[in-house]
């Protein structure tokens, strides 16, 4: 079982590992990106069908934080549970779990800015992420990808250039 917060890229990473190792995958993500999660899982299920693998091998469930505690007690069905994200309740879950639990850290967060983005909105989004007070916040980005528009690159980079922000720009 993989429990993660707002990190849809976790789905494809875990699906690849589970398929390669011959394991099924139970996913529980955040309500913040449930529609994105559903879309990714749907694509993966279509690919599994094409490969003659049961699409039920990957299952996406939804629920509140109490569901995470309940999953951690399902040792009859779950061999390993990985919590990915900034879970403040990680130690509490580990204490109550009958399933082996691995707590992964916050990981990487990517911001993608399309060429159609409004510069003021892009700057506001980047600034709000970068200026958070929480060192291990899930919303602090590690990569900012900007498609084509060099003037947008300058707009986004300038408000945070005094921070420890490093950017490389190529045409």
Would you mind describing this structure in some detail?
37% of the residues lie in helices and 16% in strands. It has six helices and seven strands; from the N terminus they run βαβαβαβαββαβα. It has helices at residues 9-21, 34-50, 65-71, 90-96, 119-130, 150-157; strands at residues 2-4, 25-28, 58-61, 81-84, 101-104, 110-113, 143-146. It has a five-stranded parallel β-sheet, sandwiched between helices. It is globular and about 55 Å long. It starts with a strand and ends in a 14-residue tail after the last helix.
Task: Please summarize what this structure is.
The protein is α/β, with parallel strands linked by helices and 171 residues long.
* Element order: H for helix, E for strand: EHEHEHEHEEHEH
Let me know the largest β-sheet. 5 strands, parallel
> Class by helix and strand content?
alpha/beta
Could you tell me the mean pLDDT? 77
**SS strand fraction:** 15-25%
Can you count the helices?
Answer: 6
Q: How widely separated are the two ends?
A: 41 Å
3D shape = globular
Fraction in helix: 25-40%
Strand order of the largest sheet: 3-2-1-4-5
Radius of gyration of CA atoms, rounded to a whole number: 19 Å
Q: Could you list the spans in which at least 5 consecutive residues all have pLDDT below 50? A: none
DSSP, total strands: 7
List keywords for this structure.
two-stranded parallel ribbon, globular, 6 helices, alpha/beta, single chain, 171 residues, 5-stranded parallel β-sheet
